[in-house]
Design goal:
This protein is α/β, with parallel strands linked by helices. It is built from 8 helices and 14 strands.
Length: 251
């Protein structure tokens, strides 16, 4: 399967430098598709219409510093930025790295002529960085899950009966989820209804028992699947839920 070229945005107001970089990409096959802007304003307009994988930008531009493009996002995805500077401006480049730039290049004819290879290396580095961030995020989530399980387990171990256990489980769950309120239902097979056994916050005044057609909790119970709602009262027939309240029903 043929891989689509990666869109690269070059922001450079020096025509000679831009042409040198353009030639470097032209001789690099179909790996990249280069777009050129001379100002930050032009670059911002292009970013609104083209999904770029990398931005190569000069530091000094007619309408500002190229560092202004650092941390810019496209559909909630950050676009990595490589800053290009002249000799003597390495301090600026280091500051750009601290601000979030992926890398910097000190301009020379050789460096600009090799910009396609620099782009390849930058994209590999960015991909590795994203993988590390995802792995770290997964690890943080896993640690948070284990801490939550330990917290709930500790609270449950001190309970001797179901009547003591459920309120403690409710309290710990609300803390873990940072939720405003909650309600626990248990199914009463003798009457065919879900019955509230404990409730907190704005759900405290919900009737203690509901019929299947009156409560979305019955759907979660019968299907065994989580149901998320922005507005409880709009999703239930004969709902007793207060307006302006949403959340999740978890079997």
């Amino acid at each position: 399967m043929r891989k689509e070229p990666v869109n690269i945005l070059l922001v450079e107001d020096d025509q000679a430098h831009a042409e040198l970089i353009q030639r470097a990409f032209d001789t690099h096959g179909n790996t990249f598709r280069l777009s050129v802007a001379q100002t930050i304003s032009e670059a911002t307009t292009l970013i609104q219409t083209i999904p770029f994988g990398l931005i190569l930008t000069d530091w000094r531009l007619p309408d500002g510093d190229g560092t202004g493009l650092i941390n810019i996002q496209q559909e909630d995805t950050e676009i990595p930025v490589v800053i290009m500077t002249s000799h003597g401006n390495e301090r600026v480049a280091v500051d750009a790295i601290k601000a979030g730039a992926l890398d910097y290049v000190v301009k020379s004819d050789a460096a600009l002529a090799d910009m396609a290879h620099t782009t390849e290396r930058a994209l590999r580095e960015w991909e590795n960085l994203i993988h590390r961030q995802r792995a770290e995020e997964q690890l943080r989530r896993r640690v948070a899950e284990l801490e939550a399980v330990n917290r709930v387990s500790t609270a449950m171990r001190t309970a001797e009966t179901l009547q003591e256990m459920i309120p403690r489980l409710m309290d710990e769950t609300l803390v873990i989820l940072n939720a405003q309120g909650g309600i626990f239902w248990l199914y009463n097979s003798f009457v065919g209804k879900l019955e509230s056994v404990t409730a907190r916050g704005p759900l405290k005044h919900i009737p203690s028992a509901t019929k299947p057609e009156e409560c979305i909790a019955h759907t979660a119970f019968s299907t065994g699947q989580l149901h998320f709602m922005q507005e409880f009262s709009q999703e239930e027939t004969g709902s007793k839920m207060p307006p302006g309240l949403g959340g999740a029903c978890i079997p």
